[in-house]
Amino acid sequence: MNLSTNYLGLELANPIVPSASPMTRSVESMLHLEAAGAAAVVMPSLFEEQIEHEAMAVHAALNFGAEISPESTLGYFPEMDDYNTGAADYLDRLRAAKAALSIPVIASLNGTSPGGWTLYARIIEEAGADALELNIYLIAADLERNSLQVEDDYLQLVEAVRNSVSIPLSVKVGPFFSSTANMARRLVSAGADGLVLFNRFYQPDIDLDTLSVVPNLVLSSSDEMRLVLRWMALLRGRVDTSLAATTGVHTADDVLKLVLAGADVTMMASALIKHGPDLVTTTLAEVSAWLEARDYESLDQARGSLSHESSPDPSAFERANYMHALVEYASES
Hints:
The chain is of the alpha/beta class and 333 residues long. 41% of the residues lie in helices and 17% in strands. The protein is built from twelve helices and twelve strands. The chain has an eight-stranded parallel sheet with strand order 3-12-11-8-7-6-5-4. Helix 5 packs parallel to helix 6, helix 7 (225-235) packs parallel to helix 8 (252-261) and helix 8 (252-261) packs across helix 10 (278-293). It is globular and about 55 Å long.
């Protein structure tokens, strides 16, 4: 069975790509995923806050004791430009991964402002990344900013990064736009070569013992794939870009459904954390078996055959599906 696919202009052997997670943090782990059959890997994100924190910490250390005497007015150490801060470890891992793996290595940036991201995008490109995933995590909590202003922040960030690199650029976004379809088209116009649907925003929790706000990371389930499935089907063929499905991809059934809806690749994280790299091998075997049993000659033949554009019942992805589900549930009750 020919499972090959094209994502961001990269020719991949199959549609399974481990997304940014602890499973892609080390070169050793990425090698295990490649051996299991992963078609590419997305490294964990390099965070804007991480870069800023490390840079400021080094800056403070270099200037400690400055101006306590005339001889130290310029500090005791060379200027910051002489030091590698923030992204050094990340870039070392990226270079090592590129040297060790034969599959594409996609880097990831997680930021909120154009600023230094153009610089780090260029550095990542120079380090050899095959593509760059821009992981945008903006919480629209400012009461004074309307939805258009928030969307413009996304577009300006994408445009700034696109203008700074020549490697393929994908944009990982959440579903919380007033018009997701329109925003998808605008992101592509701003320079995105691909869209990753959807970013899974982790929600805070409250510790009742300490009365403090705490992080609470819960792994995904296949049920969360439904939102991605709908928008994958709605965008396939209507937006000229590569489409990656992420969140809730756990089984061969999930992969097949998303491909039928229109996904070029499906990205796994939680499932690999739960079951390890060998899940890739078994999932690919099950996907191949399903396609062969139905006389498909390739994955490409199946892709998008049940998208909004190709479905015999396009309304199933819109309001009609909502009404049908309610009526059917009431009848069963």
